[in-house]
Amino acid sequence: MLPLTRLMALVAAVGLMAGCAGGAFSNSPAPTKDTFLKYAGPPIDRFTYLGHDEGFRTLGGEDVVIWTTISDAYLITVMKPCVQLPFANRVALTSASKTVTSNVDWVLVDNDRCRIASIRHIDYGAMKAAGIAPP
Length: 135
Prior knowledge:
The chain is 22% helix and 32% strand. The longest helix has 18 residues, at 3-20. Strand 8 (106-109) and strand 9 form a beta hairpin. By secondary structure, the chain is α+β, with helices and mostly antiparallel strands.
């Protein structure tokens, strides 16, 4: 094979593999706040936070889901105003003694500090079992 032909074949193969990498969720719409609420428990006062997260997803104006491990997720609602949250590329949480507490701690978004109004633990395992957990 000529070098250019090999390169074109490699590019095509990588493209095909990338198309398959999306998995079962690639054609599904992103879960909404209502979807997460369906799998969320009642509001809790606090949760243990070791200072890093496995990811997050903003759900509009005042809501964000934060994964503290690959299987533990929390739906956090912040008090208004939290102007930067819908556009966040990165978020962080304040905590004391490895504990995030509602009405005490904050979601940090760029130059915005948004006080946490409520916290709900999400049964992420049940979401996965139902096939609607985000990748």
